[in-house]
Amino acid sequence: MQAQGKDRSSPVTNVIRLIAAGAAAGVLTAAIALPAVGGAGVTAKSAMEDLNLKPEELDEPPLPERTVLKDAKGKQIAQFFFENRQSVTLDKVSPIMKTALISIEDFRFYEHGPIDIEGTIRALLKNMTSGGVTQGGSSITQQYVKQVLFNAAETDAERAAAIAPTVSRKLNELRYALAIEKKYTKDEVLEKYFNIAYFGAGAYGVQAASKRFFGKSAAELNLAEAATLAGAVQNPNRTDPNVSKESRAALLERRNIVLDRMAQLGKITPAERDAAKATKLGYKDTKFPGGCETSPYPYFCLYVQYEILNNEDFGKTPEERKKLLQRGGLTIKTTIDPQMQKAAEKAIKNWVSTKDKPVASQAMIVPGTGEIKAMAASRKFGNNKKKNEISYNVVADAKHGGGGGFQQGSTAKPYTLAAALEEGYKYGDGFPSPAGYNAPSYGAFRDCKGNRVGEPSHQVRNSSEGGGGFKTLQSGTWGSVNTFFMKLEERVGLCKTVKMAKKLGLKRADGQPLREFETFTLGINETDPVTVASTYAVFASRGQSCKPLAITEIVDRYGKAKRFKPKCTRVMDEEVADAVSGILSGVFTKGTMSGVGGIGRDAAGKTGTTDGYTAAWFAGYTPNLSSAVSIGDPRGAFDNRLMGVTIGGRGYSYVYGASISGPIWKQSMMAALKGIEPAEFEAVNMERFGGCGDICAPKPVKKDKDRGGDGEPDDRGGDPFDMFNMDDGDFGPITPGN
């Protein structure tokens, strides 16, 4: 054979000579007969010298599949996917679909080896005589290899290399194809190709494409439909029916080419071809619901997604967890309970409209396990601002797709109460709690790093919910008296209060460290319903702190199941937790929820109204279930306060914890617990917590005879804090005039 520069024969003649010379070595003949060789101007001889056509094992990562979420009862509640794909076995693909694809892509598929020598040579001749690449000539096996390499690529550069028209890429493809056909039968290769191929309109694999294009399974495809899908795989972007009229016209043209080819090969009759050609394209644009926005429980769905991405239980590295979610094929059993979810949604709907700018959100958690049973909000999830939709998880923290949350308000006071009880305070301990409180000096409070905090010039005042006077742990809590809790925190210690809150699981919604200022006890930290409900569940479970649990089991694509158990730690003495519950139970009968009332079973809780009415909360629990409800304006709570507002068609001058959040909590909890046997709180150890220690309430004043001659009895042995405050339903002496 002459060198390239001296050979004066035509390119076609050279190829024929090469084919003849390599007839005994079919693999080499196939290798030199590459469109890329002719197009790149590389001699067949130089290409052959570099060939090493030995089978090379191909790494075949699992294909991205849809992941299905199921509720606690086993019913599907969501599905999401990186690629819309539902892999099927070959027997689930209609015979006409197999025939159509093979006819147009590789009609000698069952006759040749890994490489179709005749097809490759034919394509090479066509390309060389036309002056461009008009035919590919790759076998279905080679196409499968290319798809695998493209799918495995993780960067744009790797994806470009996987389809680059280069000799080296083509040779590697051949090596992999040799190994693939040693490893699998022809039917297995065809099945894999059907499942990996992209057909356009966001549909990967023949099953998803059949449903997307025609609203039926791949097993039900008729001739015209099969020809359409077979035609789509060549250039799915050009023939994507979801793009434009032009692309649909291109797909119709391509379908007819497939039908002509099938008739030419004798796979169908001319009459069948003509009848199929006479039909319309028939594209149905069947929506394939995916993503959390299509779930009936979108906020919970988001929580599950982010939990997989962030939790090391699902992979050691962020990249591993991301791959798990993207590759999918998982069936995830979750904790969500349909009855409890419905109860939360209905209660919220009764009090807050989807059109209201302020948003109410609620989470329900099982004490002792951390299982999340409900996550609901008043506004629909989505990106349509005209419909007042909200695009983040308003029920949870930023780590789970949420935002910055709302200030917790007085639902933070039980953390100080718990710290005091743990320190040995008794129910009757208390002190005068005037209308206003100023830190006695700078440094009266110290954070957990030892830094001095506490600004004497900043005065804390009681809200209209909580009047002043001498308050005990009980009455101060029932009335939600700000100045009482400032004094209690001052005595117990800011750091001890912060440490208690952390032990219970309190975190800021934005993921930043808790702000440790003197007003910590008043709920200055922004948080979320899932977190608050979880902290209150510790009291309900008698001191067990459990991480919120959304996933109980994951079954992978191969049927292997992994179960996830609650992660709980004892963080509080049982009797201390019981004592907290004993006081918080009185909130319904003697405190800020007395106007709303209880739920007909043992329950405890706390209202929360923030400074300036930026948000309002109620958090409460029974031994069976803990729940927190918040309401605030996501446009900016401080710029859009809950004052002079209309919510749910009702007008409010001011929104308190018991105005909206409390009634939502009551209604939802009654419905959620319906059919569940009521459980009772453990009796409080009154020998330990009853009475008072060194800071008892002053004794009642004894009235004696009139010694002043003014017609009124004289007071003796009295205290300036001896008048009774009737505002909150509790009987604690107050300062006259407060």
TrEMBL record:
InterPro entries: Beta-lactam/transpept-like (IPR012338), Glyco_trans_51 (IPR001264), Glycosyltr_51/Transpeptidase (IPR050396), Lysozyme-like_dom_sf (IPR023346), PBP_transglycosylase (IPR036950), PCN-bd_Tpept (IPR001460). Residues 453-472, 697-738 are annotated as: Disordered. SUPFAM superfamilies: beta-lactamase/transpeptidase-like (SSF56601), Lysozyme-like (SSF53955). Residues 367-624 form the Penicillin-binding protein transpeptidase domain. It comes from the Bacteria. The keyword Ribosomal protein does not apply. Signal peptide: none annotated. GO terms for cellular component: outer membrane-bounded periplasmic space. Residues 74-262 form the Glycosyl transferase family domain. Pfam families: Transgly, Transpeptidase. Residues 701-719 have a biased composition (Basic and acidic residues). One of its GO terms (molecular function) is penicillin binding. The keyword Secreted does not apply. GO terms for biological process: cell wall organization; peptidoglycan biosynthetic process; proteolysis; regulation of cell shape. Keywords: Carboxypeptidase, Cell shape, Cell wall biogenesis/degradation, Glycosyltransferase, Hydrolase, Multifunctional enzyme, Peptidoglycan synthesis, Protease, Transferase. It catalyses: [GlcNAc-(1->4)-Mur2Ac(oyl-L-Ala-gamma-D-Glu-L-Lys-D-Ala-D-Ala)](n)-di-trans,octa-cis-undecaprenyl diphosphate + beta-D-GlcNAc-(1->4)-Mur2Ac(oyl-L-Ala-gamma-D-Glu-L-Lys-D-Ala-D-Ala)-di-trans,octa-cis-undecaprenyl diphosphate = [GlcNAc-(1->4)-Mur2Ac(oyl-L-Ala-gamma-D-Glu-L-Lys-D-Ala-D-Ala)](n+1)-di-trans,octa-cis-undecaprenyl diphosphate + di-trans,octa-cis-undecaprenyl diphosphate + H(+); Preferential cleavage: (Ac)2-L-Lys-D-Ala-|-D-Ala. Also transpeptidation of peptidyl-alanyl moieties that are N-acyl substituents of D-alanine. In the C-terminal section; belongs to the transpeptidase family. In the N-terminal section; belongs to the glycosyltransferase 51 family. This is Membrane peptidoglycan carboxypeptidase. It comes from Nonomuraea endophytica.
